[in-house]
# Entry
Amino acid sequence: MPAVSKGDGMRGLAVFISDIRNCKSKEAEIKRINKELANIRSKFKGDKALDGYSKKKYVCKLLFIFLLGHDIDFGHMEAVNLLSSNKYTEKQIGYLFISVLVNSNSELIRLINNAIKNDLASRNPTFMCLALHCIANVGSREMGEAFAADIPRILVAGDSMDSVKQSAALCLLRLYKASPDLVPMGEWTARVVHLLNDQHMGVVTAAVSLITCLCKKNPDDFKTCISLAVSRLSRIVSSASTDLQDYTYYFVPAPWLSVKLLRLLQCYPPPEDAAVKGRLVECLETVLNKAQEPPKSKKVQHSNAKNAILFETISLIIHYDSEPNLLVRACNQLGQFLQHRETNLRYLALESMCTLASSEFSHEAVKTHIDTVINALKTERDVSVRQRAADLLYAMCDRSNAKQIVSEMLRYLETADYAIREEIVLKVAILAEKYAVDYSWYVDTILNLIRIAGDYVSEEVWYRVLQIVTNRDDVQGYAAKTVFEALQAPACHENMVKVGGYILGEFGNLIAGDPRSSPPVQFSLLHSKFHLCSVATRALLLSTYIKFINLFPETKATIQGVLRAGSQLRNADVELQQRAVEYLTLSSVASTDVLATVLEEMPPFPERESSILAKLKRKKGPGAGSALDDGRRDPSSNDINGGVEPTPSTVSTPSPSADLLGLRAAPPPAAPPAPASAGNLLVDVFDGPAAQPSLGPTPEEAFLSELEPPAPESPMALLADPAPAADPGPEDIGPPIPEADELLNKFVCKNNGVLFENQLLQIGVKSEFRQNLGRMYLFYGNKTSVQFQNFSPTVVHPGDLQTQLAVQTKRVAAQVDGGAQVQQVLNIECLRDFLTPPLLSVRFRYGGAPQSLTLKLPVTINKFFQPTEMAAQDFFQRWKQLSLPQQEAQKIFKANHPMDAEVTKAKLLGFGSALLDNVDPNPENFVGAGIIQTKALQVGCLLRLEPNAQAQMYRLTLRTSKEPVSRHLCELLAQQF
Amino acid sequence: MQFMLLFSRQGKLRLQKWYVPLSNKEKKKITRELVQTVLARKPKMCSFLEWRDLKIVYKRYASLYFCCAIEDQDNELITLEIIHRYKAYFILDEFLLGGEVQETSKKNVLKAIEQADLLQEKTQNMYHSKSFIGCKKAY
# Structure
């Protein structure tokens, strides 16, 4: 703890602080502060010029008052004055004040920037560092704009002091993180890489941080860092514990730098150069060897530093995923930690092993620790450690140990912390489905889930069990029997009633032969739960009842009685009432044949991605399910789960490999053409309780589906990339696929839909835009049953686009499991008007072959439209104002789609402009207005579309204040009709 | 590193340092949530936890909790040692800048400060007392 200031002369400050501390009440404190503020104000306003010392003292007091939580609205000017002092403490207090107190839109910014500029140019390293620290601490965009170009120069200048280089590197990093577009890349990048060779370890540490961040965007520019990092690492790892003097931390040489170097190497694939690779492997082995040596100190700092390097080394080994020997050694090392007495190490070992489990080289080695992990799940006292253990069990699960793991997780669920129950439920549900050897086990497991943790069983889970039971006739009888038994329990969870109701409604006939479960018994059992259930469940049960009428004519009278009861027919809930009325009528007017058709057994569900898996991923972020592999490493995957087809008569759609559940082989979307609303009702159970059975698709949906891209004709060839296996850098991305423009056009007037689909991959888009900002979710679905490796989607800005549009992407997991979907979030900011969309380049390896694909990202300038309502006279006035020939763009074109006014309207609204009624004298014409919002400027747009039905032609006119925008919008919109 | 918080066992915030731009409202919310979460943990529990999409690394020294939020790919153990070093240094900018470790050598940090000393004889006491104030009363 620093000493309290002694005799540095600021007695006034010390007195003031101790006065405040001695204040007995809040009021006294405020009084004292107000007195002081008045005093300072008068000093600052007084005609006597203050010397630097007094200014410093008063600014300090203001700062202190601010830190106590009071607002300060003066003194900024004095603080700025202090910046130009050449006394260190004065300057330093000045910087402290503005770092803490000056916000970015202050008009003082110019003065401050000037002072910073002077200090940066001062060649006094201490002053330069103060200035750099200030820039980094404020880190605003304005600071970036003012200094981002200067800092690289300072960083690589030959005569910069080490401390200045350090600060410059990190300052630049901070600015880059805040606004990457402001930091210009250039020839300095090569020289930054060479800082890795610097004599000064502090400079190297700072440089590694900077490079690690920069190289993510431009890996090729910094590629040379690999060999430099390896040799640096090698020197550190092989040095004796005293070689590095100051940089040895509790007998560990340069732990921070080692970790950072290992981190940097994880930005790249394994080194291509054999010598470099050899040296690196040697390093990694040394680290693993050192872990076995006795500790040089008993201090926890020693073991933490040493193990930090070890864990980072293991991360790198896992990242490379190419050295079986190292992977197995890493696994053994982690195995030792699983039993370590340090909780932290057990936690990290479980976490790290989770990723090891997904490597084919170490999966088996991880599995040997199953008992230890199960034990951890049972005995760890810390919930976060138990959570890791559950994750690891999930990751190491395969067909050989699924039963054991699932039963352990179920047992754990009974006592699990509430916070993680839902996740455990999802995991059990997925494992049970994925590794089901027989489906009676699966049904038992899910029903157990509902019994043990019914509240945490989300809709996805019980929907899924219904889908599977419906699709597999070999389990239906068993399922009916089991739910019937489960429903016998006096108190059973509502989710059980839902599942029971649905299954008995479909398959109750399979157990009706047994007098203990005869139709009347089934009905009265279900109906005994009815009054305890929520509206959604009751609605479902009503559907079950009408199905019973079809299955068991003998129950008709009883059920009609129930439906006819006032509590149903006049139910306050409109959904229940409607169902009761419709079902009652249906059962009385329809003949048995009609009933049998309407209430037929549900057809098998088309296979979709397991909604549970999607949910787990949403909960855990991308990559959560990545450890779960497909059946690839499991030679037995073709038995029960693979082969049986529920409806052998149908032609199975070819699928690249045996689908785990055989569900994909079910008939493709054979949803019934909904002969009556009753049929729909049951389908709607799967659309959640808010289902609207009798409404057709909303106009919007109809519109969307109309615009949906047609299924592309298996452009497999497009994906087969003949390029060599080496991972190509981002700039040599291929040209967009031929239909990229066409796909882009589909999204001009809509924000959601399927952007691309072929046999391997489906890319879905959801996006929303507000003003000049947008957020886009990309969903990458692996349509095969084989994991995609090295999956990396990147967004590229061709040409000037970098300065026009800022797109921030989050990285996604490098593996996409078969049948799984990963989500990527893009944050988009429109800086100024732009004409070309960014490109989306997707690369991955499928079955060993590299695949690449370039699409146009559906971000067009009209997304940043804000509709503007205006009266007719305003519109005409503005229309006239924009009458210069270059402000107008016009196109006359033939209609490509049927000319339907409603569809046109919807498209124009989707385009983003407001539609103005009663403006154009001809009611057939459409008139719209809007403003395109960009960061730099706003562009007002007016448009007019005149359809000519006889000629099947349109005339489209756009007027905006910017010529290229008019033309571009006109082209975009003309393609839509 | 995204941010660092120091708070007492009573939940009083003593120091905060943010390395990502966030609104005050968000900062307050995060602080409240985290302080609660960390204080609720028992002494023997591990020093890491997952929180939102960040990892939290914390350590208690006497009655003061040091709590760092790091990103998914960052190393937990080395962060623990950052806390240890930080506690030893207590001088923010020389050690950590923009959320990255700037200088790990104890001696060099001190050297940087001594250099500042040379510029003016009445020196770093002020610097120290300033960070000291910052710790005493977090704004």
